[in-house]
Amino acid sequence: FSFGVDCSALSRLKASRAPDRTSNLIWYQLPKKNDMDARSGAGAAVLLLLTCFLAHASAEVFSALTHFSTLVKAEERLASELQTYIAAEQERIAQLHRLAGEVKQAVRSSLRLGPEEHIGHPTNAFLLVRRFTHDWQKLKEELKTAAHDGQGGTGLASTLEEMSGDFPSEADIAGTATALLRLQETYRLNVSTMANGLAGSHGQRLRLSDIFALGVMAYDGQKFHHAKRWLQEGLRRIEASEQDEGIDKAVAFDYLAFTEYRLGNVRRAIRWTSKLLRLDPSHERARGNLRYYLAEFQDQVRNGSAFAKKKSEAPVRSWENVWLAERSRYTQLCREPDPTPDFVEEQLICFYSNRNRTPALILNPAKVEVAWVKPTVLIYRDMLADSEIDRLKTLATPVLKRATVHSPTTGKLEFADYRVSKSAWLAEEDDPSGVVDRVNKRITAYTGLSMSTAELLQVVNYGIGGQYEPHFDHARKSEKAFDVHVEGNRIATMLFYLSDVTSGGLTVFTTAGARIAPSKVSLPTAPHVQKPRLEAVFSSTDATAVFGYGLPSTCTTSIPVLHALLHCEACLRVRVSPCFQKGDASFWYNLLPSGEGDVNTRHAGCPVLSGSKWVCNKWIHERDQEL
Questions:
Q1: Helix, strand, or coil (residue 532)
Q2: Residue 420 and residue 436: Cα distance in Å, rounded?
Q3: How many whole angstroms separate alpha carbon 243 and alpha carbon 208?
Q4: How far apart are the C-alpha atoms of 504 and 323, rounded to whole Å?
Q5: Beta strands 585-589 and 490-497: pairing type?
Q6: Which position has the higher pLDDT, 275 or 201?
Q7: pLDDT, tens digit (0-9, with 9 covering 90-100), for 413-428
Q8: Alpha helix locations (H) across 430-579?
Q9: Which H or E element spans position 342?
Q10: pLDDT tens-digit profile of 590-608?
Q11: Full-model pTM
């Protein structure tokens, strides 16, 4: 809004004197209510009054006592405006103190937990990005225009200006907010629990302004169910604390009204709009919306649908039904496992393997666990050492880029919302230390497959809420990507786990109903570690029944453990709960013996709820695997 004051009307210091050029009408344009800085408004008022009175500084005030009373009244008003200005300045300083306190708390948490673990928590990551896109950005703009910039703010202003090029963008805060909503939806998290930093964890509590910001961002993304929950949580907190932290309740009511309308709840839209108008009766758009909502509600009453649940305006197409069903299945597996059938449970065993006396595995046999059957999914324990993992991360970090997928229609690599991560491709020549070469040779030793036509090692890091929704690794005949590789289709996948994940981040097979969950629990490294639970059985029969290929037939129960490890498969009859640890790898064949794709290999990477997930995969192709 704008206001104007005639200085001659305010200052009647000398009635006979006509206003001069300095006492003309002065206009000050203030920001809109939602954006207005109270400090600048109060300061403008003080400046206006001073300008008006100082314009008449040459008047002869001392010659008549009556004019002194005018000065007293003027000073009373100035004192009032000055108090308003001081209050606004104090509030601004208080806001800076709150920001400093929040930053200090975050820095302490980062030092205590380590930067990666600290930002691995979703609310900590969201608050970090929001501080840079909102709080620090706002402070930078304030320091640019502040009249007292030279009184200690110059250094901070210069630092902020210098660093602002590396600040996260609006797209980053939108992506981070979407990730939080994804976690809320996938793991069915209560809004209040999330806003409190996931109680029981090391997450920071969201501020009231952050809660409303998430509601608005959900609204902008047309995620109206989420928008409703977050906006209502913000209003609940205002009512509980009787502090609004500068939040305009009328704006919140406006968002909630249209959110309810889009969700088909016209009566609730009317209720929120009525609340808005009680706060601001002059709100023209709200008055128009209320008339529209009332008219629509009357139509619904006439049609008998006023109290019926609103149906989708557009019919759901068959492929959408399939997608929704699979997504429901995917999120359910991310939350909890299916009951394991007895016939599957009997085959979930672990054993030591030298894979037909492969030289590299004779003295250091592979520790193998059957995680699932149909498809057969194996977990190789301790396949990578910590030093090798560190080297792979070091090589990948400088060249990480947003991960892409093959478009099923064009066959080209494209970005996709269902894959949220960054990846880097590592060739043997990129690593003078030879770690990449050793990893490739180890895959051959463990699987017997040639790496000559395999793709490069791909190192992947998942960000906040990072995921890879259900997909096949192999190309299907209906896709153009099927003809992309002259080396043939992807016959098998080896997936290395390069980090321990605190929560979430499972690998799930949506068709088969299998899942491999993260775990930091140590597993036994020899058959005799847990004698009451484990029974060493040196028999090729059981192993062959599980895998159906190439296992030796020379094992007997009388062979000592050490000799068994050197010459055959040592099977441990123990019920396993498939999980992965840092250094483990999972392996499965994507194709059936006929060369057709195995539909049971459709799998996904669940959103990371807490922690940092690093993986590395090797896609192995058909060519050169004939023998």
A1: coil
A2: 25
A3: 10
A4: 22
A5: antiparallel
A6: 275
A7: 554 554 567 899 999 9
A8: 435-447, 540-547, 561-567
A9: helix 342-345
A10: 999 998 999 999 999 999 9
A11: 0.74
